[in-house]
Amino acid sequence: MISGLFYLLLFPGLLFQVICSLFFEWLDRKLLARFQRRVGPPWFQPLADLIKLFSKEDLLPEGANDLVATLLPLISLSAVLTAGLYIPIAGFTPFSFEGDLIVILFLMSVPTLAYYLAGVVSVGVYSILGGSRSLLQFFSYEVPLLIALSGPAIMSGSWSVEQIMISQGSMGPFILFQPVGFVLAVVGLIGKLKRDPLDIPKAKSEVVGGPLTEFTGAKMGLWHLVMNIQAVLGIFLLTNLYLGWTKTFNPLVAVVVFIIEFLVLVVILSGASAIYARLRIDQLAGLGWRILVPLSLLQIGFVILMGI
Amino acid sequence: MSILKAVINAFRKTPDTVKYPYGPLVIPKGFRGAIVIDTEKCSGCGLCVRDCPAAGLELIKESRQDYQLIHYPARCAYCGQCEDSCARGAISHSNDLVEPTYDSDEWVVVLKHQSGD
Amino acid sequence: MNKISIPIGPQHPLLKEPLTMNIDISGERVLGGTLRLGYVHRGIERLAQQKTYVQNVHLIERICGICSHVHTTTFCHAVETLLGIDVPIRAQYIRALMCELERVHSHLLWLGIIAKHVGLDTIFMHTWHDRELALDIMEEVSGGRVSHAANQIGGVRFDLSQEQEAMIRKTVNDLSDKANTLMDVIENEPVLQARTKGVAPLSAETIKNYCVVGPVARASGVDVDMRRDHPPPPYDRLTFNVITRQDGDAWARTVVRAEETRETLKLCHTILDEMPDGPVSVRAPRKVPEGEVVVRSEAPRGELLYYLRSDGSENPARLKVRTPTLPALNLIPKQLSAIHVADIPVVMAGVDLCIACADR
Ligand code: SF4
Ligand code: SF4
C-alpha cells in the first residue's frame, strides 16, 4: 500500500514527472534562446509560469461546455501520468508486463484526442480550426510513429519495454540497427508533442493559439503540464527503445548514461525547432504518407529480414 | 544547412540581449533628451514657441520684462526644432533621459521665469 | 465542408498594426476575403494644413515608424522645389545615406517577419538583431532610432565627422557580412522555400492594373524604381542595380528584398565614397511662394508620392501623400483565393504592410 502510494505520487509518478517536465521545459527554452542569440529564462521560470497560470482567472467563452473543458486536461494528465508509471527510468521498472509498450502508446495518444475535443468544446473559430488540424496531423504522424516503434519490439520479439531493454543489453543499442526508425520516431514525437516545426495545430500566425485559444488560468496550466510531461515521457520512451542498453549496467552508471541520453535527445528536439520552418498541413500529410510511411515499412522489412 | 552553422555559432557566442538592464547605458552624442535652457541667453523672443510642432512650449508674456517660458515634457516630441529655431542658442536638448509620468497634463516645467522689477 | 468566416484583426498575432480581414474558408482552403482599414487614421494631411512648413517636417516624420526619413526627405524636397533653393550636395548625400540605411533596416525587418510567419523564429531573432546595427548608425549620427529628425527645409541638421564616417563604413561592412550569411541561410532553407514558392503568384499585368510599386512589383518583373526612373537628387549621380525577378510569388518577393538589402549596402559605400565636402544646410524662407509640385521618391516599400500646393503663406494649402502600401493592400483580397489558411501569413507578409503609412 505504502509502496504503491510512493510509486504513484513520488517516483516514478506525479512528483518526479512534474519535476522532470519543468526541467525539460527550462532546458528546452534555454537552448532555443541560445540558438536564437537570446539569454533565455532562469531555471525557475517554468515553475513560476505554472504558478502564475494556476492563480489566474478561469474564463471560457459563452456556449462552451465548462465541465468537459475542465475534464479534458485532467483526463489527459491522468493518462500521461499512468503511462509514466510503465516507462522504465534508467532501467528501473516496477510495473513491467508483456505488452506494456502498447498500453503506453495508447495512453500517450489520449492527450491528442483530448486536444482535439478541447478545440471543439471551446467554440472559437480558431479553436475549431486548430482542432481539425490537430486531427489531420494525428493521422499523418501516428502511423509512421507506430510502425517505427514496432521495430524494436519485433527485433527483440517482445512487446514489453523491459524485455526490449534486456535484449539490447546483449545485442547492443537498437539505434545501430534501426537508424531510420529512430529518426522517424523523433519526427513522430515532434508531431505528437506539436512542437516546432510541426506546431501546425497551434501555429500562432495562422490560428492564434489553436485549440487552446480560449483556455485560460488553471486549465491552461494543466495543458502545459500535460504537454511537457508528454514530451519527457516520449523522450524516456525513445531512450529506452533505441538507446536502452543500460539494463545490464550497474545502476549508478545506468543513471548517468540515461541522463546523458536524455540531454542529447532534448538538444535534438530543440535544435529541430530552431532550424526548421513550419510545414503546411497538406505538406505534412504528403510527407507523412509518401515518405515517412514507406521508410518505416522499409525499416520494418529490414528488421524482419535480419531476424530470419 | 547553413542555418545549422548560424545556430551553432549563435550558441557558442554570448547572447546579444544580455546588455540591459545591467550594462552601462550608452547614449549617443546627438541624443535628444530633456529640454534645458540657459536662462542668461534667453530673451523671451518666442521663436521656439512659434516653431514647436507639438505645442510643447508656451510663452506667457506680460511685458518685455515679465514673462514665463513653460515646457510641457509630456507633450514634447523631442524633435529638436526649438533648439534649431532659437537664434540665441538658449534652449537645447540635454543627454538626460526623460522620466515617464502618470499625469501628463500636470507635468509643467517653468524653464525661465523673468519677473519685471 | 461548409463555409466559415474567420476574422483576422484588428488584433491578431499575425498583425503588427491594426486592420481587419474577414476571411471565408472551407476546411483549409481560403475562398476569399474582405479588408477593412482606417484604424490608425490620424488625419495627418488635414493637420498638415494647419501647421507651418517647419512644423510639418516633424509631423510628416510621424507618418511611418519604419520609413520615417524618406517621408521627410520627400516633403523637404517638395518644399525646396517650390522655394527654388538648392540644397547643398553634401546634405543630399547625407539624406540619401539615411534613406538607404532605412531601406536596409526595413528589408531586414521584413525578412524577420516572413521567417516568423512561417515558423522560423531563429531567423527572425537573428535578422532583427542584425537590423539593430543599421539603427545604431542612425541613432549615432542623428540622435534618434526611429524619429531621426535629420531633415530640415534647406538641408540636414547634422554633419558627419571623420570618425562617424569611419564608424559607418565599419558597421556597414559588418552588416554586409551578416547580410551575406543571412541570404545564404535563406537560400538554403528548404522548408521556407516550400512554404513560399508558388504561393499567390501575381502577373506583371495585375501589378500594373493595381498600380502596385516597389519590391512587390519588381518581384513580378515590373521594372520600376524611382531612384533610377525619376531620380531625386543625388540619385542621378549614383549607380546601382535594380533587382527584379519574374515569378511574382512569395519566394520571388523574398529574394528581391534579400538581394536589394545587399545592393543597398553596396550603395551605402558608394554614397560615402562620393560624398563631397561642404555645408549641410542653407537658410530657407518661412513663406513658400504660390505653386504646386509633385515629387516622387523610392521608399523601402516602393514609390512615395507627395503633392504639395502652396498659397503663398506659411502653411501648405494642400498636402497629399500617396504611400506605396495602399495599392498593395488592394491586392490582398485578390490574392486571398485558392490558397491555404497557412498561406495567409505569407501573403500578408509578402506585400510588406505598413498600415500606419496607408491610413495616415
Ligand atoms: S523638442 Fe520639439 S516638441 Fe519639444 S519643445 Fe522643442 S520644438 Fe517642441
Ligand atoms: S529659448 Fe531662444 S527662442 Fe525660445 S524664447 Fe528664449 S531666446 Fe527665444
How would you portray this structure in words?
The complex is a heterotrimer of chains A (308), B (117) and C (360). By secondary structure, chain A is an all-alpha fold. Chain A has one domain. In chain A, 52% of the residues are buried. Chain A is built from 12 helices and no strands. In chain B, 18% of the residues lie in helices and 19% in strands. Chain B is of the alpha+beta class and 117 residues long. The longest helix of chain B has 11 residues. Chain B has a single domain, classed as Alpha-Beta Plaits (2-Layer Sandwich). With 360 residues, chain C is an alpha+beta fold. Chain C is 50% helix and 14% strand. In chain C, the strands form 3 sheets. A 4-stranded antiparallel beta sheet of chain C has the order 1-2-3-9. In chain C, strands 6-7-8 form a 3-stranded antiparallel beta sheet. Chain C has a two-stranded antiparallel sheet with strand order 4-5. In chain C, β4 and β5 form a beta hairpin. In chain C, α2 packs antiparallel against α3. In chain C, 54% of the residues are buried. Chains A and C meet through α6, α9 and α12 of A and β1, α4, α5 and α7 of C. The site of one iron/sulfur cluster (SF4) has 14 residues of chain B, from α2.
List the helices and strands and how they pair.
The complex is a heterotrimer of chains A (308), B (117) and C (360).
Chain A: H1 2-10, H2 14-35, H3 45-54, H4 66-86, H5 100-121, H6 125-156, H7 161-171, H8 179-193, H9 204-207, H10 217-243, H11 251-275, H12 281-307
Helix pairs in contact in A: 2-10, 2-11, 3-10, 4-5, 4-10, 5-6, 6-7, 6-8, 6-12, 7-10, 8-10, 10-11
Chain B: H1 2-12, E1 35-37, H2 47-51, E2 57-61, E3 67-71, H3 81-85, E4 91-93, E5 109-114
Chain C: E1 4-8, E2 20-26, E3 29-36, H1 44-49, H2 53-61, H3 68-83, H4 89-117, H5 121-142, E4 151-152, E5 155-156, H6 162-187, H7 190-196, H8 204-209, H9 214-219, H10 226-229, H11 250-274, E6 291-299, E7 302-310, E8 316-322, H12 325-335, E9 339-340, H13 344-350, H14 355-359
Antiparallel strand pairs in C: 1-2, 2-3, 3-9, 4-5, 6-7, 7-8
The structure holds iron/sulfur cluster (SF4) (2 copies).
